[in-house]
Structure formats: C-alpha cells, structure tokens
Amino acid sequence: MHFQSDAATEVFRDSVRDHLDDVLTPDFEERIYRSGVAHDDDFAKGLVEKGYFAPGWPTELGGQDRNAWEEQALNEELMRTDAPVYLSETTRMVASIIRQIGTPAMKERILAGALNGDITIALGFTEPECGSDVAAAATRAVQDGDGWVINGSKMFTTNGHIADYVFLLARTSPEKPKHKGLTMFLVPTSSDGFEAQAVWTLSGERTNITFYSDVRIGDEWRIGDVDAGWQVLGLSLQDEHASGWGPHIARLLHHAEEWATTTHAPDGSPAIAKAEVRRRIARIAMELEVAMLLQRRCVWMTENGRTPVAEGPMSKVFSTESLVRASQDIVELVGPDAMRSFLEPTAPERGRFEHLVRFSLGTTIYAGTSEVQRTIIAQRGLGLPR
C-alpha cells in the first residue's frame, strides 16, 4: 500500500496547475465570489477542452481513460485553488449514475451533452423540514397516465437557478417505510411549475430553495425503478461521502506561511520567529498530512476494486473538522486584522483568513453532516447497532 503519486501523475498535475494559473486570475476570482455562484460556463468549457472534465471516463465517451490517481491529482488542484466546479461535479456525478443504470434513451439524451459542458445538473435531495434525514423526503411524485406530477420543495439546491436539470428524490409510495417508497427523477428546470429562490450561505455562496408545483414530466425522466430511489441515491452519496477537503487546508496553510514570513514585529523580526506561530502552523501541517493520507487511502481502495464505505466518511469528517479548527486557530493567531473582509487589498492575505473561517463551517454539513458520517462509520465500518 502506498499513497504517493508516480511520475506520470505528477506530470499531469503540473499541466492542470499551468491551466489553472492561466485562467484563475484575481479578477476572475473576485467576479465568482461577488456573484456567489460556483460555476462559470467558460471555465467549465475550458476543462472540457483540456480533457479535465471527466478524465477517468473512456475516450469514446469524452474522457481520457486516466486512472484514479490522476483523477485525484486533478481534484486536489481544483480544490486547492477553490475553482468554481461544483455544478460540473454534480453534473458528472449524475451522468455517472445515468451511465450505470439509465435507459438507452436517457443515455443518448444526457451523456454527450453533460460531458461536453452543454448540459448541467443540480442535486435536489434535502428538504426544508428534514435536515440531514434525506430519506424523510416529503416531495410527492404521483403517477398520472404515462407520466408523473410532482409537488413539494427542496432546500440547498445549489445552482438550481442555472442548471438544466435537477436530480430529484421524490416520494412515490407514502404507505411504505420511508427508505422504500422513494424514486429518483431528472426534472428539466424549464418545466412549468418549477421555481428557484435564492438563499445565501454564511460563506457568501448562493444556494436555492426550489419549488415544484404540479410539475409534469414523462416517465422517461425516471432514473431507476419505481420505489428504488434510495438505492439510486446511494450511488451518488457514495462519491460524496468519500470526498476529502484536505486541499482547502493546504490553501489555508499556504496563506498562513505567507503571513508569518512577511509580517514583522516592531523590532523587525518576522512573525515566523515566534515559537507560538511555528507551533500553530506546524499543527495545521500535520493535520493536512493526515487528511491527505485518509483521502488517498480511498483512492488506493478504489484503484484496487474496493469500496471505501467507512473510509470515505472518515476522510470527510477528519478533513472538514480539521479545516474548521485550523481556520479558527489562524484567526486567533493573526488577531482582529484576520477578520477584515475577503478580497480587501489591505487585509492580511487579502482577507482569505476571514473567508476560510466562514467557508469551513459549511464543509461539515455538505454531502452529509459530521453526525451522518459518524453514523456510517459506526454502523457500516464498525458493525455497531443503530
């Protein structure tokens, strides 16, 4: 078992870095942040042109047949630079599910467009009254002839206002146990009765609450069997739960080191000369190392045909909670100046400490809260009872 990249992977990583250095200019970064939308059509099309959109997919489907380590290198660089790829990621996730279990007609309609950046797909799982209990979804889909009528609402449908489709979890058999009566649909956002309203997060990101009022779709938009939505959903959550957020810790560490080496005390000595500064930075570096090893263990398992059922949540919990600890630690270290606004030119590191402390809190919720992840680790990893 090893977690080090080979030479070919590092060459690929360097090419990704060169591309991101070219396109992620300060002006671009500020425009994305001010918009609150982690997506840009031109940036996404640039990934497609470079072969970075779905590099692990077969070449005949628009990929590059790259291995899991090369995909991991790409993901690390995109995350390290905070690139606006969330809608691209959800699109690719749903496309992967359609590739596995979609009908031939669905594959023909969606896959090519999703892989070349012409089709985008947001996720519609969480509901306003259900919190992290996704299986408690109350949004109803009632069969009507050869189609379905959908009524309900979803919370945190990020990019739902610009996506072409929403990958929607709906209740089709309310008389069955909550995990048994769910079905997945791909709902065109152009449908009559669909509406997205903005909700702004602590980190400045726009997400949405989406409403479905007598939305009518044909049965061809169903993904998987009727009442088998929980199994279909599991295909997507497996990828989300195996996410690691270590590269964001690396970004914080970089800015902390920059601050420590360029900030001077009245006697002219740099901040890094203080033992307390070095201690805090060293602690972040150690947690970054652990976070990256946990994530790369998931990659190693995938590459060897094993599913990181509990290992993925371990990576997610540790990396996100480490990011929260580290960002708060650096704010305490830097002092009141650390809370000056993100992208303000006179703020330390242009306000990235302030942004990262806000951003970090959401990471413990995205793709399942820390409590959900710990439950998976306990039940499916350790075999503990419910």
TrEMBL record:
Cofactor(s), by name: FAD
Source organism superkingdom: Bacteria
Domain Acyl-CoA dehydrogenase/oxidase C-terminal: 241-381
One GO cellular component term: plasma membrane
Domain Acyl-CoA dehydrogenase/oxidase N-terminal: 9-118
The keyword Flavoprotein is assigned to this record: yes
Domain Acyl-CoA oxidase/dehydrogenase middle: from-to ranges: 122-209
InterPro entries: Acyl-CoA_Oxase/DH_mid-dom, Acyl-CoA_Oxase/DH_mid-dom_sf, AcylCo_DH-like_C, AcylCo_DH/oxidase_C, AcylCoA_DH/ox_N, AcylCoA_DH/ox_N_sf, AcylCoA_DH/oxidase_NM_dom_sf, Mycobact_Acyl-CoA_DH
Keywords: FAD, Flavoprotein, Oxidoreductase
Coiled-coil boundaries: none
GO molecular function, one term: flavin adenine dinucleotide binding
Annotated SUPFAM superfamilies: Acyl-CoA dehydrogenase C-terminal domain-like, Acyl-CoA dehydrogenase NM domain-like
Catalysed reaction, written as an equation: a 2,3-saturated acyl-CoA + A = a 2,3-dehydroacyl-CoA + AH2
UniProt xrefs under PANTHER family: ACYL-COA DEHYDROGENASE (PTHR43292), ACYL-COA DEHYDROGENASE FADE29 (PTHR43292:SF3)
Entry's family note: Belongs to the acyl-CoA dehydrogenase family.
Record's protein name: Acyl-CoA dehydrogenase
